[in-house]
Design brief:
By secondary structure, this protein is an alpha+beta fold. The protein contains 11 helices and 8 strands. The protein has a single domain, classed as Outer membrane efflux proteins (OEP) (Up-down Bundle), CATH 1.20.1600.10.
């Protein structure tokens, strides 16, 4: 057992740590109370990870727009002006040894061009590129949804951590108050000469231990709040509280049975996960996109057919458009013969990327099976903890009440009373932890199954 000076030293150290963290909060600010729904809303709005996923969707949307543009004709127009500065230059020409002097040229020259071109066929690369961009957009959207579910789960579990820490602080504070009252009672008995000083000293040590436990619990509560605020995308030094009414404080057998009916058997839960998980569907879309990339690479082996049409005009003065304008139309067929193995290497690279994503599919499926299994095992353990802690709490409360009554009547020892008190406090904390652990287990099961809304 710690002696009193050492115990006081530990108390001072923990108090300093907790005070330093607490002073980081803005003094005088009004306390804001967040509900669970408000925490989730803020996290979905301000969390930087989700914002990056949103940017990925916008990039994929731009790529899809660019791919659609290949179905449209290209239009170009240009106009130019050219002026000769040395108008005397170039007037003399030699034809067959005879020099002829021409008249003064017009120094100005104007040109106007307009053309349209359209790809009739490019080896189905255009169609494959559009399909690939569409699959990548679907993959980005599904990845965003999975990240969104992950953030909701993190907020929910961290909210539960805060409430569990808050309940622990409340229990520790009540326990400290009971210890101080008991200390006052034994001091009065000592002053009356009914008990020895060792009983008072033992009670003082017990009160110090309870104070130390309270400081530790308060520090854990502050850390849990800071972690939740960070996930919400908010400054972690805010002076905030979290509504306990957002989470039920009791769990009934009907609640447990209803959730078990919701998830079904382990085989049904696994089937739900393989069907509903957005990360799996996102990877499926990326596999489809990789398959289209092979088609795009192979298109370079096939001929390309382009149709062009336009109008051009040039003159030394801005006039006579009808006389000097020219219309044209052209059909161009380009047949690849040899491109220094560029097409072959690009196709091979696309095939390798396709095989990599297929391996990612197998790995993700194994990961999903593992996560579902672990989540169900955690749910089983949480249900058993609810049953055990309920029985333990009732027994500890009866034992504590009996030990306190015997000690107050002088029929029991102080050691028995303190042991029963510590057991009762531990049982209360274990019960609180079991309730919130069950809520957390349900959240993780829904996340593993992909059924979070």
């Amino acid at each position: 057992m710690l002696n009193i000076p050492m115990l006081l030293m530990v108390k001072v150290i923990l108090f300093a740590v907790y005070t330093t963290f607490s002073l980081a909060q803005t003094a005088g600010d009004a306390t804001r109370v967040y509900t669970l729904d408000e925490c989730i809303t803020l996290a979905l709005r301000d969390n930087p990870t989700l914002a990056r996923e949103q940017k990925a969707i916008e990039i994929s949307q731009n790529a899809l727009t660019r791919a659609f543009g290949s179905y449209l004709p290209s239009l170009n127009a240009s106009a130019g002006y050219w002026r000769q500065l040395n108008v005397e230059g170039g007037r003399a020409v030699n034809i067959g040894g005879q020099v002829f002097v021409l008249g003064p040229p017009d120094p100005n020259s104007y040109t106007i061009n307009a053309a349209a071109s359209y790809t009739l066929f490019n080896g189905f690369a255009r169609e494959a590129t559009y399909s690939q961009a569409h699959d990548e957009l679907s993959a980005a959207s599904l990845s965003y949804e999975r990240t969104r579910q992950q953030i909701i789960t993190h907020v929910r579990t961290q909210y539960l951590d805060v409430l569990r820490a808050l309940q622990t602080v409340r229990i520790r504070r009540d326990n400290l108050e009971i210890g101080r009252q008991e200390l006052a009672r034994v001091r009065a008995l000592y002053d009356a000469g009914r008990i020895p000083i060792t009983t008072v000293s033992a009670q003082e040590v017990d009160v110090g231990t309870r104070e130390l436990d309270l400081l530790t619990a308060e520090h854990a509560l502050a850390q849990a709040k800071a972690a939740l605020l960070a996930t919400m995308g908010q400054p972690p030094d805010q002076n905030v509280e979290f509504a306990e009414s957002s989470i039920p404080s009791t769990i009934t057998d009907a609640d447990i049975a209803a959730f078990r009916k919701e998830i079904g058997s382990p085989a049904a839960a696994l089937a739900t996960a393989l069907e509903r998980r957005s990360d799996r569907r996102s990877l499926d879309a990326r596999v489809h996109a990789a398959d289209k990339a092979i088609t795009v690479a192979q298109a370079a082996y096939l001929p390309q057919v382009n149709l062009s049409s336009g109008w051009s005009w040039s003159n030394t003065r801005v006039a006579q458009f009808a006389e000097f304008g020219r219309y044209f139309v052209s059909l161009n067929v380009q047949v690849p013969l040899f491109d220094n193995f560029n097409t072959a290497t690009q196709r091979q690279q696309a095939v390798l990327q396709m095989e990599q994503r297929q391996l990612d599919q197998r790995q993700l499926e194994l990961q999903i099976r593992t996560e579902v299994r672990q989540a169900l095992l955690e749910l089983d353990a949480a249900e058993k903890q609810l049953e055990i802690t309920e029985r333990a709490l009732k027994a500890a409360e009866l034992n504590y009440n009996a030990a306190r009554e015997r000690f107050q009547l002088g029929a029991g020892t102080q050691l028995e009373y303190l042991a029963a008190s510590n057991q009762f406090v531990a049982a209360r904390i274990n019960r609180v932890s079991a309730i919130y652990a069950y809520h957390a287990a349900r959240a993780r099961v829904r996340f593993a199954l992909g059924t979070i809304e």
